[in-house]
Amino acid sequence: MTANTDLETIERDLLARVGAANDEATLEALRVEALGKQGSISALMKNLGSMSPEERKEFGPKLNGLKDRVTEAIVVKKATLAEAALDAQLKAEAVDVTLPPVKPRSGTIHPVSQVMEELAQIFGEMGFSVEEGPDIETDFNNFTALNFPPKHPARETHDTFFMDAKDERGERKVLRTHTSPVQVRTMLKQKPPIRMICMGRTFRKDSDATHTPMFHQIEGLVIDETSTMADLKSVLIAAIKAYFEVDDVKLRFRPHHFPFTEPSAEVDVGCDRSGGQIKIGAGDDWLEILGSGMVHPNVLANCGIDPEKYQGYAFGMGIDRLAMLKYGMNDLRAFFDADTRWLKHYGFSPYLLPGLAQGVG
Ligand code: DAH
Prior knowledge:
Elements: H1 2-20, H2 24-35, H3 40-47, H4 53-92, H5 111-125, E1 129-131, E2 136-137, H6 139-142, H7 153-157, E3 162-166, E4 172-175, H8 181-189, E5 194-203, E6 214-224, H9 229-244, E7 251-258, E8 261-272, E9 279-280, E10 285-295, H10 297-302, E11 311-318, H11 319-327, H12 340-346
This protein binds 3,4-dihydroxyphenylalanine (DAH).
């Protein structure tokens, strides 16, 4: 019967083409051509409907057999092609383990970044969040809100860089002279309780071995209904011990004046200078490291916080100075020279992030 001969020819032809297909696209085109909606085998299937019952009885199973064998051949070929493609990919992407190792990166973490990371860890453990503020500040945030009276000489002691640009109040903007304006920003946007630190760049017209026009500070602020000077002391003692990784650190709180705190204290840390190098912790000498105090009621009121209900403490420290003391650098200017020899010597490995578990040093 011609129909049978035709079926055999069709099968032979299709199987030969499946065998010859050597990529998945060709195979897929073949599948659509034979088995797709408009495919040749599908067309034959449709013809069954117009056949006599006898013809259909004979022709139907043969057609189904053809369809099954062609489908099976395509599935098998597809798997073979996929396997071959994977083999080729693995061969192409093989790693030659005999090659020399990739040269390690030579960049380092700057000591200032390292110390900031250490401080964030230490204060983070004590429940402080980290806030930020811009380098260019309004006169209000940098001075007025912090209880520096207008035209007061205290403004001059900061050797301020004034910008030409003016703020909404018509006052010249400043490069922030300390991180204290971030206290103001935080109190203006957040209701107490507040427990935050802020770290960042600060600017003053000053330059010698221990002063650069741009330097870094860390600020701390705690506002709630109960915090006292005693809380300030215990937090600072814990932080300094953790930072310098020494157990017996002496701190001395000396009365001082800051417009934004009352009472105010400068804090000295015990040290030894006998070997020509400053050693923190031991010895009978003192080194001033930070300013602190109870937040002045005027500052709270200026920031929309009721001084009758809330109180708290604040502190500010030079970060560069902390880095010099811990890691033995004696010239601050080198911090900002971008000299790769200095960075290589004093920089930190990016793989050794500070954490309290493994130590912050
Ligand atoms: N802002 C002060 C400065 O730069 C440091 C300081 C002192 C910050 C006392 C404080 C503080 O928060 O309470 O000299």
